[in-house]
Write a structure and sequence with these properties.
The complex is a heterodimer of chains A (462) and B (146).
Chain A lengths: L11 H27 L10 H32 L6 H24 L2 H7 L17 H24 L4 H17 L9 H36 L3 H22 L12 H12 L1 H16 L8 H24 L3 H7 L3 H30 L8 H37 L9 H7 L1 H23 L10
Chain B lengths: L6 H29 L1 H4 L6 H12 L7 E2 L2 E2 L9 H4 L2 H15 L17 H15 L13
Antiparallel strand pairs in B: 1-2
The chains are: A mainly alpha (462), B mainly alpha (146).
Family (chain A): Belongs to the heme-copper respiratory oxidase family.
Subcellular location (chain A): Cell membrane
Membrane topology (chain A): Multi-pass membrane protein
Chain lengths: 462, 146
């Protein structure tokens, strides 16, 4: 049974499958790091912490990018009401990106980082060794090539088809993503300038253009699963992404508090980042409103659950936990503490991991030829996966927050001389780190249950 | 939302509003880069500092440590380590001794790898950390423990 509107939408499948494989890797390395937090010398020789962390964070970024690309290949043709310009190009770029990604990760794991820098000729154009941008320069160039081909393919598809609000916002988000990535090639010797422009990639991705991508995917899913009028949903979408950019662009200022920058950033950053929870709050209202006003009972209940879940969790993780430590007098104490880690975990899971699983949940049954939804039994497994992962992430966040509050209390607030040192403080936090690790194991169980749901079939009735 | 507020108006807010704030952001960035030399004392960047920064990057120090609060939170903050570990009088000899003593191999304790840097390289790294500690970053971190 073929339920795809446009056959070329099927190119999304390898992107989704590979994204989920990388997701598993990300979680396994997360568990290794979590254990290293409390058993410091665990695998210290084979997988030093910095390597585990690079793999954990880079896999996260890459699997989300694969997810976004899959989402774009799925929804842009359907919105444009035309086949994808070149399915072949999409598949070629998939393999280029996948091979480059795997080689880079293997490079991290198999040779010391300085050797990797040497053999990839980092000295010719040093861009490596900065948080999240650790990829060898040649990998970064590969990412640019893949992005250009990807944008060309989508752009041509949109040009020959209908230009809906969802497509336009998806496209501006993806172009923004590519343009901002170019700042990863700028690495001045002056550390202050380096960090200033590093944020153009990091912040303007996750608190800027990625929100456009997320909003577009969410709106697409809500149109499909609720049957609510497109005009209504697109109006909401414009308002939400406008709020996201209006708050997020100057919200970059909250990273310029402690960076050899003028003091006005304390005000600009605090005020605009205080507004950053608003688009996420609007997204919660939007998602629940649309689902309550639905005109059809879509058989894919799991996809609806993911859509509502991502709105709520993004609001909590990005909105509430972000706001907790975003005002400059608070951030003075919390900057670079476990509070940041708590916020990062829930924000990435809620906003981006969950939106990718939302589109996968909706699109995969159609791509696999199963129909509008998986069978009930498979959906029950999928929803168990949803709840296990989501509740585990709530607890990971709470434990890291506990660790962070105690860390600030012991290490940051007392005067010099009375404050505990970093390492002594870390030992005092170990109970929280152990609990976080337990929650991490439950997260992995949830992920296994989620993946298992892809293989569940209804028993043939006798 | 009321019927008076149309999709077209929402679209104009999206394109117009974001363009407006992008321009403000670019303006502030231009002003900030003009002001930064007063605070980042870039005139003190020597070749040794430059080599030190590259060593910092090529060994992925940020994968465990944080620097001015960014990076990993697994190992201590290093933007003020120069002041914490001896300053002008003792930092260089401290760093040399520390780097060469790695890994400490204390069971259960977090391990720092040995990066096999030469004395000259450790000196460059120390110069980079010293330079970093002397930037005016609005008084962060709150105390010497970072």
């Amino acid at each position: 049974m073929n339920t795809l509107k446009y056959q070329s939408q099927a190119v999304a499948k390898p992107y989704f499958v590979f994204a989920l494989i990388l997701f598993v890797g990300q979680i396994l390395f997360g568990l290794i790091m979590g254990l290293q937090y409390v058993v410091g010398d665990f695998l210290a020789e084979a997988i030093p912490f910095n390597v585990a962390r690079m793999v954990h964070t880079n896999l996260l970024i890459v699997w989300l990018l694969f997810g976004f690309m899959g989402a774009a290949y799925y929804l842009v043709p359907e919105e444009a009401e035309t086949e994808l310009y070149s399915p072949k190009l999409a598949i070629i770029l998939f393999w280029v990106f996948a091979v480059a990604g795997v080689l880079t990760i293997l490079g991290y794991l198999l040779v010391p980082y300085s050797t990797l820098a040497e053999i990839t000729l980092n000295h010719l154009w040093p861009t490596m060794g900065r948080e999240f941008l650790e990829q060898p320069t040649i990998t970064k160039l590969g990412i640019v090539v893949v992005c250009l081909g990807f944008l060309f393919n989508l752009g041509m598809t949109m040009l020959k088809g209908r230009k809906t609000a969802i497509n336009m916002i998806m496209m501006t988000g993806l172009i923004g993503l590519a343009v901002m990535f170019l700042f990863s090639f700028y690495n001045p010797v002056n550390l202050a300038l380096d960090k200033y422009f590093w944020w153009f990639v990091v912040h303007l991705w996750v608190e800027g253009v990625w929100e456009l991508i997320m909003g577009a995917i969410l709106a697409f899913i809500l149109i499909k699963v609720t049957g609510v009028d497109r005009e209504v949903i697109e109006k909401w979408l414009y308002v939400i992404v406008a709020m996201a950019l209006i708050s997020g662009i100057l919200g970059t200022g909250h990273h310029f508090f402690w960076l050899a920058t003028p003091e006005y950033w304390q005000w600009v950053g605090s005020i605009f980042s205080a507004l950053e929870p608003l688009p996420f709050f609007a997204m919660v209202l939007f998602a629940f409103n649309m689902v309550n006003r639905r005109r059809r009972e879509h058989p894919n209940k799991a996809a609806t659950l993911w859509a509502l879940g991502t709105a709520v969790m993004a609001f909590l993780g990005a909105g509430v936990w972000g706001f907790l430590h975003t005002l400059s007098p608070v951030n003075f104490y919390t900057h670079g503490s476990q509070i940041t880690a708590a916020h990062g975990h829930m924000a990435f899971y809620g906003a981006y991991a969950m939106i990718v699983m939302t589109i996968i949940s909706y699109a995969m049954p159609k791509i696999r030829g199963i129909g509008e939804s998986n069978c009930n039994k498979a959906q029950v497994w999928e929803m168990w996966g949803f709840w296990l992962m989501t509740v585990a992430m709530v607890f990971i966040t709470l434990f890291l927050t506990g660790a962070g509050v105690l860390q600030v209390w012991l290490q940051r607030i007392p005067e010099s001389g009375e404050a505990l040192s970093f390492m002594v403080t870390q030992e005092k936090l170990s109970i929280f780190f152990w609990l976080r690790e337990v929650a991490g194991v439950i997260f992995l169980l949830g992920l296994i249950v989620y993946l298992y749901s892809f293989f569940v079939k209804e028993k043939a009735s006798a | 939302m009321s019927e008076k507020f149309t999709k077209g108006m929402a679209r104009n807010i999206y394109y117009g509003g974001s363009m407006f704030f992008i321009l403000i952001f670019l303006g502030l960035t231009f002003h900030t880069t003009k002001e930064m030399p007063k605070r980042d004392h870039r005139h003190n960047i020597t070749e040794s500092v430059e080599r030190g920064k590259h060593l910092w990057e090529q060994n992925n120090c940020i994968g465990c440590h944080s620097l001015i609060g960014e990076g990993a939170y697994f190992a201590p903050e290093l933007a003020n380590v120069y002041n914490r570990r001896g300053g002008e009088a003792g930092f260089k000899s401290f760093l040399n001794g520390w780097m060469n003593a790695q890994p400490l191999n204390i069971p259960g304790r977090r391990q720092m790898p040995n990066f096999h840097l030469t004395d000259e390289e450790i000196n460059d790294l120390a110069e980079f950390l010293k330079w970093t500690s002397e930037m005016d970053v609005n008084g962060w971190p709150p105390n010497i423990e970072g």
